[in-house]
Task: structure prediction
Amino acid sequence: MAAADVLETAGVGVRLAAHGCCGRPLISQGLLDEARAAAQVNADALFEAASRGDKILFLEPSCLSAVREDAPALLRGDAQRKARMVGDACMLFEDYVEQEWKPGGSHST
Result:
């Protein structure tokens, strides 16, 4: 919630997206069927935001890695295409802030 507050204070519109666990704990335990199901849930839940061109921000690097890299590797067909599009829309909160507030960024002063 603090990250959303920072962005809103800076004038960036924020939408909190419904999602589930990234699946990284499941993968580390060898529960690939469950991880695949989690990847599918997240790809479906976040696809609309990615399709709109929204940035999907993460606060935890390992969760970002799971959504960006592991989910597309676990899925096939249309689900994999969705997961790749979602992954391409994802970035770390601090990378987003750095990109947006660097000189010449859309929020630079």
